[in-house]
Amino acid sequence: MLKGNCIPLMKLHFRKAIILMLVAALGGGYYFLNRQNQTVRLTQIPDYRRPTTQPVDNSFSTLIPTVQPKTASIQTYQVPSGWQKYSDSESGITVYYPPQYTAKYNPNRGFGVNFRAGSYLVNESGDIVLDFYVFPYNGGSRRQSFYDVVEFDGPEDMSKFTVSIVDVVLNTRTYLKLISNYWATYASQGNQVFFLTPQGDKMYYFTYPASFESNSTDYKNILTIIATSVLSVGRGTSSNQYVYCYARPDSGNINNSWEARIVSGDMEVTQRTDKQLKQGFVDKSKISLSGNPQNPDFKYFSITDFDIYVDSSRKGSYQDAFVIKIKKGDVDRIAQDTPSSIPTVAIMSSINGGVETTDGKFCKADLYGYYAPKP
Predict the structure, then answer these.
(1) Domain carrying residue 366
(2) Which of 179, 206, 236 finishes a domain?
(3) Edge-to-edge strands of the sheet including 84-88?
(4) Looking at the structure, do residues 226 and 255 belong to the same domain, yes or no?
(5) CA-CA distance, 20 to 241, in Å (whole number)?
(6) What's the rounded Cα separation, in Å, for the pair 217 and 211?
(7) I need a labelling partner for 332 at 20 to 30 A (CA). Which of 70, 90, 103, 283 fits?
């Protein structure tokens, strides 16, 4: 009798134990997730003044736009009376801007150092308010397309410097608004904001210093300029004519796909390519070289007196090779401006279609860095 009554009693206690364990597990899970969320919030990069952005942690692989295009509210702007018109015929971008700004054209097309690469606007103080240009787009993630195109000296991964992303709709056109702290991290220049919008096989971009968002007049002007811009097909090289001919040079492929050395005072860079190159053809007008002093001021300077030519005898196991030669005077200047603790002299290069392949394509490589031991 006693044994018979014990069985249901044990079952009852067993069920209670199971329920208690489930409650404890759920409670513990909630506590753990809550602590995790608190940890993320404590380690996030500080937010900006504008309510449209949301900081995230460095786990960027899980980052998604804060606002989806279908839910982003439309912000409407019109061109104010008295504004002026400027067209960049190569990129196909036309903007309207206030009379206190001045439109500038940079002949060094493509992404360039500090983004003076397309056209840009300056205010009365001479500060650059807004840059705008275009780069090739093959579909897919707008964010990843931006990372693929924007390349810097050194091994930095641009995605690590993204503070926030959010979709913004201006006059029915959707932009990915991306804020980067790359310049704040390495150049003490503050964060940079990018508005990216794809149209066909092109990605149009507008970029400005985040500090302008604290000035209500400038910020409204910037949004009005972006919202009322006209985007069309420019007369520049079609994006499908560009190909990546070689990997970004870094410490992992030095003395393999590329190498640099000082020869009789000149800096000589050999870049091997995965594509066969058209012999005897290099368009120097599309190539930009800058001295990189590798100091905290980021004071690059343009190098205009240089040689660049195809030299297949240096290709090794690759399809082809070309050589960049920097003259001794510029090499000495780079070395002088480089901190004594750094044993190399460095340059930045943007090919921008200056090197052609045998099948009629153009090599695209923006802001690739090279370095050689100091003379």
Answers:
(1) 241-373
(2) 236
(3) 84-88, 93-97, 230-231
(4) no
(5) 66
(6) 12
(7) 283
Q: How far apart are CA 219 and CA 268, in angstroms?
A: 45
> How do the pLDDT tens digits run along the chain, 375 residues long?
333 444 444 344 444 444 444 444 444 444 434 433 433 332 333 232 222 222 232 323 333 333 344 456 889 999 999 999 998 887 889 999 999 999 987 765 544 434 455 788 999 998 989 999 888 788 889 988 888 776 544 445 777 888 999 999 999 899 999 998 877 776 667 898 999 999 988 889 999 999 999 999 999 999 999 999 999 876 555 555 778 899 889 889 999 999 999 999 999 999 999 999 998 878 887 788 889 998 877 678 889 899 999 999 999 999 999 999 999 999 999 999 999 999 999 998 888 778 999 998 889 886 789 999 998
Contact 303, 326 (CB under 8 A): yes
Token output for 178: 């991306």
Beta strand pairing status for 230-231 and 93-97? antiparallel
Kindly calculate the radius of gyration of the chain based on its CA atoms and give it in whole angstroms: 27
Among residues 204, 233, 276, 241, the alpha carbon closest in space to that of 353 is found at 241
Q: Alpha helix (H) ranges present in 202-350?
A: 216-227, 328-337
Q: How far apart are CA 96 and CA 169, in angstroms?
A: 18
Element (H, E) at 222: helix 216-227
Which domain-ending residue is among 204, 236, 268?
A: 236
Same domain for 64 and 198, yes or no, is: yes
- ∠ CA 104-110-111 to the nearest 5 degrees? 95
Could you tell me if 80 and 225 lie in one domain? yes
Number of domains in the chain: 2
User: What string of DSSP letters covers 99-164?
Assistant: TTSEEEE-SS-SS-GGG-SSEEEE-TTS-EEEEEEEEE--SS-HHHHHHHH---SSS--GGGGEEE
Q: Are 91 and 234 in contact (CB under 8 A)?
A: yes
- How many other CB atoms are there within 10 angstroms of residue 32's CB atom? 10
- What is the total residue count of the chain? 375
**Using CA atoms, how far apart are residues 217 and 55, in angstroms rounded to an integer?**
24
Question: CA end-to-end span of the chain, whole Å?
Answer: 100
